[in-house]
Amino acid sequence: MINVGLYYRVKEGHEKEFEEIFKKVVETLKLANVGFIDGKLYKNVDNPREYMIYSEWKDLDSFRKFMLSREFKNTTDYGKQIIEGRPYHRIFQEINA
Protein backbone atom coordinates (compact mmCIF):
# COMPACT_ATOMS: atom_id res chain seq x y z
CA MET A 1 0.00 0.00 0.00
CA ILE A 2 1.10 3.58 -0.64
CA ASN A 3 -0.16 6.87 0.73
CA VAL A 4 -0.26 10.08 -1.28
CA GLY A 5 -0.56 13.60 0.06
CA LEU A 6 -1.89 16.04 -2.53
CA TYR A 7 -1.58 19.71 -1.59
CA TYR A 8 -3.79 22.49 -2.96
CA ARG A 9 -4.41 26.19 -2.43
CA VAL A 10 -7.97 27.10 -3.44
CA LYS A 11 -8.98 30.47 -4.83
CA GLU A 12 -10.93 32.60 -2.38
CA GLY A 13 -14.64 31.83 -2.42
CA HIS A 14 -14.22 28.33 -3.90
CA GLU A 15 -13.59 26.40 -0.70
CA LYS A 16 -17.02 24.71 -0.48
CA GLU A 17 -16.93 23.90 -4.20
CA PHE A 18 -13.53 22.20 -3.76
CA GLU A 19 -14.83 20.21 -0.80
CA GLU A 20 -17.89 19.02 -2.75
CA ILE A 21 -15.79 18.00 -5.76
CA PHE A 22 -13.50 16.04 -3.44
CA LYS A 23 -16.47 14.04 -2.11
CA LYS A 24 -17.65 13.21 -5.64
CA VAL A 25 -14.17 12.16 -6.80
CA VAL A 26 -13.70 9.86 -3.78
CA GLU A 27 -17.08 8.20 -4.40
CA THR A 28 -16.24 7.70 -8.08
CA LEU A 29 -12.78 6.28 -7.37
CA LYS A 30 -14.13 3.82 -4.80
CA LEU A 31 -16.59 2.46 -7.37
CA ALA A 32 -14.07 2.38 -10.24
CA ASN A 33 -11.92 -0.48 -8.90
CA VAL A 34 -8.67 1.25 -9.91
CA GLY A 35 -6.63 0.46 -6.79
CA PHE A 36 -7.92 3.42 -4.78
CA ILE A 37 -8.63 2.51 -1.15
CA ASP A 38 -9.71 5.73 0.54
CA GLY A 39 -9.18 9.47 0.72
CA LYS A 40 -9.58 12.13 3.37
CA LEU A 41 -9.60 15.91 3.05
CA TYR A 42 -7.79 18.16 5.51
CA LYS A 43 -7.89 21.96 5.78
CA ASN A 44 -4.96 24.00 7.09
CA VAL A 45 -6.00 25.52 10.44
CA ASP A 46 -3.86 28.62 9.82
CA ASN A 47 -4.98 29.14 6.22
CA PRO A 48 -8.44 27.71 5.39
CA ARG A 49 -7.77 27.99 1.65
CA GLU A 50 -4.99 25.38 1.85
CA TYR A 51 -5.94 21.72 1.69
CA MET A 52 -4.28 18.33 1.79
CA ILE A 53 -5.89 15.26 0.32
CA TYR A 54 -4.57 12.13 2.01
CA SER A 55 -5.22 9.10 -0.17
CA GLU A 56 -4.45 5.40 0.13
CA TRP A 57 -3.75 3.24 -2.91
CA LYS A 58 -3.23 -0.47 -3.40
CA ASP A 59 0.18 0.15 -4.97
CA LEU A 60 2.29 2.73 -6.78
CA ASP A 61 1.32 1.39 -10.20
CA SER A 62 -2.40 1.99 -9.47
CA PHE A 63 -1.72 5.61 -8.50
CA ARG A 64 0.48 6.23 -11.54
CA LYS A 65 -2.18 4.80 -13.87
CA PHE A 66 -4.75 7.12 -12.28
CA MET A 67 -2.45 10.12 -12.79
CA LEU A 68 -2.34 9.27 -16.52
CA SER A 69 -6.09 8.66 -16.85
CA ARG A 70 -8.65 10.76 -18.67
CA GLU A 71 -10.59 11.12 -15.40
CA PHE A 72 -7.59 12.70 -13.68
CA LYS A 73 -7.03 15.03 -16.63
CA ASN A 74 -10.69 16.10 -16.59
CA THR A 75 -10.52 16.77 -12.85
CA THR A 76 -7.32 18.79 -13.13
CA ASP A 77 -8.64 20.75 -16.12
CA TYR A 78 -11.67 21.77 -14.05
CA GLY A 79 -9.50 22.41 -11.01
CA LYS A 80 -7.52 25.08 -12.87
CA GLN A 81 -10.58 27.31 -12.47
CA ILE A 82 -10.61 27.08 -8.66
CA ILE A 83 -7.00 26.23 -7.71
CA GLU A 84 -4.43 28.93 -7.05
CA GLY A 85 -0.84 28.16 -7.97
CA ARG A 86 0.50 24.75 -8.84
CA PRO A 87 -0.62 21.82 -6.68
CA TYR A 88 1.91 19.14 -5.74
CA HIS A 89 1.94 15.67 -4.23
CA ARG A 90 4.16 13.45 -2.12
CA ILE A 91 4.10 9.65 -2.23
CA PHE A 92 4.87 7.57 0.87
CA GLN A 93 5.18 3.82 1.25
CA GLU A 94 4.17 2.09 4.45
CA ILE A 95 7.05 0.52 6.38
CA ASN A 96 6.16 -2.67 8.21
CA ALA A 97 8.72 -2.69 11.00
Give a verbal description of the structure:
- The chain has 97 residues and is α+β, with helices and mostly antiparallel strands.
- The protein has one domain: Alpha-Beta Plaits.
- 37% of the residues lie in helices and 31% in strands.
- The chain has helices at residues 15-32, 60-67, 70-79, and strands at residues 2-9, 36-43, 50-57, 88-93.
- A 4-stranded antiparallel beta sheet has the order 2-3-1-4.
- A hairpin with a 6-residue loop joins strand 2 (36-43) and strand 3 (50-57).
- The radius of gyration is 13 Å and the shape is globular.
- It starts with a strand and ends with a strand.
- It holds the Pfam family ABM.
- Keywords: Monooxygenase, Oxidoreductase.
- InterPro entries: ABM_dom, Dimeric_a/b-barrel, Heme-degrading_MO.
- GO terms for molecular function: monooxygenase activity.
- This is Antibiotic biosynthesis monooxygenase.
Radius of gyration: 13 Å
Largest sheet: 4 strands, antiparallel
Oligomer: single chain
Number of domains: 1
Question: How many helical stretches?
Answer: 3
Overall geometry: globular
- Helix content, binned percent: 25-40%
Strand content: 25-35%
Q: Tell me the strand order in the biggest sheet.
A: 2-3-1-4
Low-confidence stretches: none
Total E-strand runs: 4
Q: Could you say which structural class the secondary elements and strand pairing correspond to?
A: alpha+beta
Span of the ends, CA to CA: 14 Å
GO molecular function, one term: monooxygenase activity
Keywords: Monooxygenase, Oxidoreductase
Domain ABM: 2-92
Protein name: Antibiotic biosynthesis monooxygenase
